[in-house]
Write a structure and sequence with these properties.
This protein is mainly alpha-helical. Helix content is about 75%, strand content about 5%. It has helices at about 10-35, 55-75, 80-100, 105-125, 125-135; strands at about 40-45, 50. It has a two-stranded antiparallel ribbon. Helix 1 runs antiparallel to helix 4 (about 105-125), helix 2 packs antiparallel against helix 3 and helix 3 (about 80-100) runs antiparallel to helix 4 (about 105-125). About 25% of the residues are buried.
Length: about 140
């Protein structure tokens, strides 16, 4: 017997779903822009120069964006498997943002932080989404 009741914490689940959808949409946008940009760019840091193949990274962002959108929709529908799927996809996105730190430090830090908050919302309050779905 499980204790799946709707609580006032349902907002955390909706927050996670909306943030995943928004993050997915932005990843798709960044992916398309990176694919359409020139083939490579370089960044100069204190450690040296890094050559960055933007089109390859763009395909990665496009793929992860589509998967994030699918996870956000499934999570909003209260699917049990979607909680695990969403946590895995958001964790992959967080690692992806850490890899982007040299190129775009502030954006990567903001998205990484939001990813951690979303993982918290799903793992602690994700059960309320299923209860909300059953109540409808």
């Amino acid at each position: 017997m499980t204790d799946e009741r709707q609580t006032r914490w349902i907002g955390w689940g909706w927050f996670a779903s909306i943030m995943i959808l928004l993050s997915g949409a932005l990843e798709v946008l960044f992916g398309i822009l990176a694919i359409l940009l020139p083939a490579s760019q370089y960044f100069t840091t204190r450690e040296g120069t890094t050559v960055f193949y933007v089109s390859l990274w763009g395909w990665w962002h496009l793929l992860i964006g589509i998967v994030l959108i699918a996870a956000g929709i499934a999570l909003a529908n209260g699917r049990v498997w979607a909680r695990v799927f969403a946590v895995v996809v958001v964790a992959i996105n967080a690692v992806s943002q850490l890899l982007s730190l040299p190129a775009q430090p502030w954006w990567s830090i903001v998205v990484f932080t939001l990813d951690i908050v979303v993982i918290y919302a799903i793992t602690v309050h994700g059960r309320e989404l299923r209860a909300y779905d059953r109540a409808q």
